[in-house]
Write a structure and sequence with these properties.
The termini are far apart. It is built from 2 helices and 6 strands; from the N terminus they run ααββββββ. The strands form 2 sheets. The chain has a 3-stranded antiparallel beta sheet, with helices on one face. The chain has a 3-stranded antiparallel beta sheet with strand order 3-2-6, with no helix packed on it. The relative contact order is 0.16. A hairpin with a 4-residue loop joins strand 4 and strand 5. The chain has 2 domains: 40 residues, no CATH class; 56 residues, no CATH class. By secondary structure, it is of the alpha+beta class.
Length: 97
Amino acid sequence: MAGFKRYEYAVSKTKGIYIDIKSDFNKVLGSISTQMVDVSQSFALTHIPINPSSLKVIYNGIETKDYVYATGSNTIKPGKSIPDGVNVEVEYEIEEL
């Protein structure tokens, strides 16, 4: 694989953004900015839960139901922004490895 095809391949495998160098970067930078905010406020789980409805999400020792579990990305997204310094714990059951 040569030239730009390598980069195109890497972008597709990492779910990145591929854009022609001559394109308008305004739209791309806006998209990247939105994705960064989404990632900074979501938490990837290490394993896939057996039963997603039994997830326990805990902020500073207090359980909350104000979150969304995204099965496709296996992440927890809080219902509202979490301030810096808050300890976030997620408890769930997994199949034996």
